Amino acid sequence: MNDKMINILLVDDHSMVIEGMKAILSNMPFIRIAATASNAFEALASLKAHSIQLAFLDINLPDINGIELCARIKKEFPLTAIIGLSTFKQRSYVSQMINNGASGYLVKSAGREEIEEAINSVLAGKMYFGADINSNKPETISEEDAPTLTRREKEILVLIAEGMNSNQIAEKLFLSPYTVDTHRKNLLTKFNVGNTIILIKKASGFGFL
Amino acid sequence: MYENEKQLLALNSILQGQQEERSRLAKDLHDGLGGMLSGIKLNLSSMKGNIVINEKDALLFNKSLLQLDNAIAEMRRVAHNMMPEALLKFGISDAIRDFCDGINESNSVKMKYQGINFTEPLEKSTEVILYRMVQELSNNAIKHAHANTIFIQIAQHELGITLTVEDDGKGFNMNDGNIKNGNGFKNIQSRVDYLKGSWDIKSEPGKGTSINIEIPVYDER
């Protein structure tokens, strides 16, 4: 046995996907498909029976979903790297898989080159998210960026800066004091500040006032 | 039981049935057809480069692969419009973020989303209706107002939910009955009524539109 061979587990409940993945992986000399599974139960059994370096996990499985299975595998078999596999490429799925310990993510419509690239980067200890997923990086909201305010929030911010209290603002804008208070709290959250004085300071720093 | 209470109950079960049916169809499309198409794509993709074919056939082969990609993308789009799975799995905030990602990718419109204070999950049926309103209002802003930027905000507070959708599009005259009585706004009106909420529109020609929707969250425990 060549110990450079990488043992792979394929988990998907569609036999056509398993067959397709097998066909692609059979072209890669250093890969051995140690087992395939069509549900989470079988997958966990295969992981116990073989020493698996890399598992491809479908997001939608009949028993428990791939996102939960991913967390369980990482807990019980921390050395097994995981690449999520799905028809979806939405950010919500990617981030949930990554949060649960996956090293990469592939859409099932990926071509051979992409699959090879994914395997190589994950085995090298890097993360892989696929071409079309990398291109829309989540926007990071940094401390330094000005928050986006709604029209109503801007209105209320100006009136707060003028020294009005919630009741006065409510009367002026024909809102309930409760609504004004909610807007005030939301403003504090958006600017990440604890009180109105710092709110006004920070807001004028950003040019809102 | 009062007559309108009966009506509301009937409407409720229709909506519920519709939602379940849509979820089932979307799941069938995605899991069934989606799995098969992906399998075909993977099989064909593994053949690529391994077989000797003439140049003309190779072109045709690559073209077919591309068409298959388009078929998969189309299937995904249809299933997603029917019922975004992220909405059922992860809730409204993640689903709207995905919705914005989708538009940011394919249009020249810039979508921004902010969720504030999501502490407890909402009733699923409420989330679906809120999501549909976000879709409808965003589509209006793109199609009719030709907006460049759309800002969506959902804030949870002690009494309910505030949804705000703002755009920098061409706006309209608030006295123009044709727009306020148009189908787009009528759909919103009936959804807001169904959720026992209230809403207001602010718009001015050249200054964009701002829509504010208040939904009370009734505690039925």
Textual characterization of the structure:
With 209 residues, chain A is of the alpha/beta class. Helix content of chain A is 48%, strand content 13%. Chain A contains ten helices and five strands. In chain A, strands 2-1-3-4-5 form a five-stranded parallel sheet, with helices on both faces. In chain A, α3 links the parallel β3 and β4. Chain A is elongated. About 4% of the residues of chain A have low confidence. Chain B is of the alpha+beta class and 221 residues long. Helix content of chain B is 59%, strand content 17%. At the A-B interface, α1, α4 and α9 of A face α1, α2, α3, α4 and β1 of B.
Secondary structure layout plus pairing:
The complex is a heterodimer of chains A (209) and B (221).
Chain A: E1 6-11, H1 15-25, E2 31-37, H2 40-49, E3 54-58, H3 66-76, E4 81-86, H4 91-99, E5 104-107, H5 112-123, H6 131-134, H7 151-161, H8 166-173, H9 177-191, H10 196-205
Parallel strand pairs in A: 1-2, 1-3, 3-4, 4-5
Chain B: H1 3-47, H2 55-82, H3 85-90, H4 92-106, E1 110-116, H5 124-143, E2 149-157, E3 160-167, H6 177-180, H7 183-194, E4 198-203, E5 209-216
Parallel strand pairs in B: 1-2
Antiparallel strand pairs in B: 2-3, 3-5, 4-5
Helix pairs in contact in B: 1-2, 4-5, 5-7
Short description:
The complex is a heterodimer of chains A (209) and B (221). Chain A is of the alpha/beta class and 209 residues long. Chain A has helices spanning 15-25, 40-49, 66-76, 91-99, 112-123, 131-134, 151-161, 166-173, 177-191, 196-205; strands at 6-11, 31-37, 54-58, 81-86, 104-107.
Coarse structural class of chain B: alpha+beta
Biggest interface found:
A-B, 40 and 50 residues
Low-confidence stretches of chain B are none
Mean pLDDT across every amino acid position of chain A: 87
Main beta sheet of chain A, described? 5 strands, parallel
Helix amount of chain B, in percent? 55-70%
Number of helices of chain B: 7
- Walk across the major sheet of chain B and give the strand order: 1-2-3-5-4
Count of helical regions of chain A: 10
Strand fraction of chain A equals: 5-15%
Terminal CA distance of chain A reads 72 Å
Silhouette of chain B: globular
Total strands of chain B: the figure is 5
> In sequence order, what are the helices and strands of chain A, one letter per element?
EHEHEHEHEHHHHHH
Q: Residue share in helices of chain A? A: 40-55%
